[in-house]
Write a structure and sequence with these properties.
Layout (H helix, E strand, L loop, with lengths): L1 H14 L3 E5 L8 E6 L14 H4 L4 E7 L2 H9 L7 E7 L6
Antiparallel strand pairs: 1-3, 2-4, 3-4
Length: about 100
């Protein structure tokens, strides 16, 4: 049992987090939107479309996806069957007249 716990902790510690992002030329400062996306089989199965125009009608400053610590814990507990990821969208500052 101790070996299993140590192996799981080592896998979580060595797995690390990752982030993929894209930044536009629009100024930052608008509202942010976070959403959990559900994947399966270590992220190989599943997809999600996020309508950036609906989330940020004034424009998008940046958007990206990452695996938070909680996402990695859930992936480890389910042995990769359930693999959530977090999508983050930062809206651009509304232009001043």
């Amino acid at each position: 049992m101790n070996l299993r716990c140590a192996s799981l902790l080592a896998a979580l510690a060595l797995g690390g987090c990752f982030r993929t992002s894209y930044q536009t030329a629009l100024p930052p400062g608008g509202p942010s939107h976070h959403e959990t996306v559900r994947y399966a089989l270590w992220g190989l199965a599943g997809s999600k479309d996020v309508d950036l125009d609906a989330v940020c009608p004034k424009g998008v400053h940046s958007f990206g996806t990452y695996a938070s610590f909680g996402d990695l814990v859930l992936t480890g507990i389910t042995l990769g069957i359930y693999s959530p990821r977090t999508v983050e969208v930062d809206c651009a500052l509304e232009p001043q007249p």
